[in-house]
Amino acid sequence: MPTEFRTFRAPGRVNLIGEHTDYNDGFVMPAAIDAWTWVKVSPLEQRKLQIYSKNFEEEIKVDLDDPNLARRGHWSDYPVGVAAILQKSGHRLRGARLQIRGDVPIGSGLSSSAAIEVATACALAANSELKIDRRELALLCQRAENEFVGAHVGIMDQFISLFGHARKALMLDCRSLEFKLLPLPDNVRLLICNTMVKHELAASAYNERRAQCEAGVKHLAQFLPNVTALRDVTLEQLEQFGRDLPDVVYRRCHHVITENARVLAAAHALEHQDLDEFGRLMAESHQSLRDDYEVSCKELDLMVELARQIEGVYGARMTGGGFGGSTVNLVREEHVEEFRERVAREYEQVTKLKPEIYACVASEGAGEVLAADERG
Ligand code: GLA
User: Rounded to two decimals, what is the model's pTM?
Assistant: First the structure.
């Protein structure tokens, strides 16, 4: 890297509750975690991007004036997708040399993809002297993932990567993009358990769930003309007007509608420091994701079961898109060591896989890293 460079970083996230609700205009409650993607950037004379990934030890080059930039099924789709969408939406980019390094575990349900998108977007915007506000940056990164990478994700991951706050969870209304910061009590820890599995169907099953929700909305809107998303439907309305839906679509809608209600109740519980109630809602969320939405898997279910048997655990559930990845656990500080030791040992005994368990700290969102604390 030349000496004249700037460094930006963006965090991964863990979602406390509100799963598969973001693309239904609903509510989510993630926190940014202290695992990051760093992007070092310096200007290039020509309108080209030269992108080196330290994790993959590989460099790629693209021409910013190439009209045929397209997905290659490669790590570089994320940064190139961000550049392509920034330009498509009218932001003219300067050429840049980028060096990317990340420590958000890939495929773990902790949103390494949003971290790379957001860190790249911040770096490219600064390098081109563009002032883009954080909401727009989040939406542009989501668009890059939707249109360029081809994953029809919601706004949660990119948003929290930009708006995260130290020691706070963030409840986001994915329709209005208004949010509320909620205090995480000092004597509890957020433990993330990585099952170390990622099942193949994750991407296609995600898009399929999304389509099933849309089918549910289409049916319900015949009776309820003001309904444009599952966010607008109450449980009573689903029971009344959803009787003719195929069973699987009914259950998908049931999950989303009840999950939205759980997020609101969980925010209330957190504001009143009622962790028992918060944990109960996490358990219900897991059950609904497992039975109604069918995005869990045996490894995630096992990890949650093992966690529940440990003293001092308020709640445990899968986090993120599912089909492998991680669970999130709310654990009293003094039981963290016992948790780590027992859950890791018992999980390994059954699955023969060594899980990774991280005690995470809710962190601030993306930003520039000053030379003094630069770790990238
Ligand atoms: C993935 C997506 C998010 C969200 C979650 C499920 O992480 O990127 O937009 O839909 O799955 O809650």
Answer: 0.96
